[in-house]
Amino acid sequence: MNLFFREEGEGFPLVIVHGLYGSSDNWLTVAKKLSVRYKVYMIDQRNHGRSPNSGEHTYELLKEDLAAFFDQQKIDKAIVIGHSMGGKTAMYFAADYPERVEKLVVVDIAPKDYFLLNDESQYYLHKNILQAMLDIDFGRMESRKDIENYLIERVDSISIVQFLLKSVHRNKESQLFEWRLNAKVLYDNLDEIISGVNAKWFEDRLPIFNYPVLFIKGENSNYILPEDYPSIRRIYPEAIIRVIPHSGHWLHAEQPQLFMEVLEEFLNKNS
Question: CA dihedral defined by 259, 47, 42, 225, rounded to 10 degrees?
């Protein structure tokens, strides 16, 4: 699969992998700052943004999409940054292709099965979001404000709604709004997205010392919890875990300066 991507700057390669419902657009601000020192690639994962849609959406495929992208761009080795679902893609890729990873940065996701949270699971949150996306009748939506009002009634989180609206665009032929992501396939593969690349999956790969690893957690986010730290360090004994105060899951947008300080401190270490 030929993934859509953006690039900024020159220097050592650095690849950014966005999360669920996201796209390369979400990381442009970070990429421009990093482009002073690095050649930054921002990909759109399959079924997201401007990359092709597919009937399948598994971490095995997302990992191999990333490996193919490295080959296509002739990237021998790179720093890899992954957020949320993209963080799981990045961990999987790094575990299977350690020789291609200089450093790994995992943003607000843990290597765990989120079904273990039972009723508090991210599964129910995302199932509701995707169902709302599938149910929307764009034929009745005359403006982005109409879409926003509809989503707020269904999702009940202004920050999530604002993020989802970034994936709405107007089809030039029909002149109707539509999603720039494959909501149906994401809904059908939500079990995999939520449960995949978990601690059990890493059992035959322990421990991992091949590359330095940084986990960045949003203080107010429940995607990485203190009880996850032992599992993270069991897989990555030398992992650094940093917390960005006053931030949630989209910490790079909520606290951009603090996020960049933590990121650059790690990238500058032993470089």
Answer: 20
Read off the pLDDT of each residue in 235-248 and give the average, rounded to a whole number.
Answer: 97
Q: What is the CATH number of domain 5-113+196-268?
A: 3.40.50.1820
The pairing of beta strand 177-179 with beta strand 213-218: unpaired
Residues β-bridged to residue 166: none
Q: Is the pTM of this model over 0.90?
A: yes
- Residue whose token pair is 């020192």: 37
Strand duo 38-43 + 101-107: pairing: unpaired
**Residue 271: its pLDDT value, please?**
57
Distance CA 237, CA 231 (A): 9
Among 271, 269, 270, 264, smallest CA distance to 81 is for 264
Whole-angstrom Cα distance, residue 252 to residue 109? 13
Distance of CA 184 to the CA centre of its chain: 19
**Of the candidates 51, 20, 39, 43, which has an alpha carbon nearest to the alpha carbon of residue 102?**
39
Hey, is 180 helix, strand or coil? coil
Active site amino acids = 84, 249
The residue extents of the domains of the chain are: 5-113+196-268, 118-190
- CA dihedral angle for residue 135, residue 139, residue 140, residue 145, rounded to 10 degrees: 80
Report helix angle 85-96 to 59-72, nearest 10. Answer: 70
Residue 100 has, within 13 A of its CA and on its CB side, a CA count of 22
Average pLDDT, the chain: 95
Strand 38-43 and strand 5-8: the pairing is antiparallel
Beta strand pairing call for 177-179 and 168-170: antiparallel
Per the CB < 8 A criterion, the answer to whether 27 and 18 are in contact is yes
